[in-house]
Amino acid sequence: MSTLSDRIASRQKRERTQVEIEEWGDNDEPLVLFFGPLLAGEMDRVQRKHPEFPQRSSFSGMVELIIMKAEDASGAKVFTLEDKAILMREPLTLIAEIAGQMMEATSIEVQEKN
């Protein structure tokens, strides 16, 4: 790794954003999902299966993004590809809202500063 690469890698933080999803909650409490910033490699993985994503977003691509990014408070993945069929049966407005937040996310720290 070059000196520049070392410097960039040392600056990369694991900042996360959280989103509350009323529809998926339990006991009158929303489900809280966490996710980090969308990384170039992650977008590349989605675009391999959905070449025009995000310019012409497919709901399948959005669901795969949610599966890839959604974590619980401890950082564990919430979904697997086995959950895709269930998520594909959710209202498209909900899927679009969650995926949109993941694509536009800023860190919790940035949100708290505003």
Q: Which architecture does the CATH hierarchy give at level 2?
A: 2-Layer Sandwich
The arrangement of helices and strands along the chain is: HEEHHHHH
Kindly estimate the percentage of residues that lie in beta strands according to DSSP: 5-15%
Structural class: alpha+beta
**What count of structural domains?**
1
* CATH H-level superfamily title: Phage tail assembly chaperone gp13-like
Instruction: Say how many strands there are.
Output: 2
Q: Give me the CATH fold name.
A: rbstp2171
- In CATH's first tier, which class applies? Alpha Beta
The DSSP helix count reads 6
Q: Percent of residues in helical segments?
A: 40-55%
Report the mean per-residue pLDDT as an integer: 85
Radius of gyration, in angstroms, nearest whole number: 15 Å
How would you characterize the overall build of this protein?
Helices cover 46% and strands 15% of the residues. With 114 residues, it is α+β, with helices and mostly antiparallel strands. It has a single domain, classed as Phage tail assembly chaperone gp13-like (rbstp2171). A two-stranded antiparallel ribbon has the order 1-2. Helix 3 packs across helix 5.
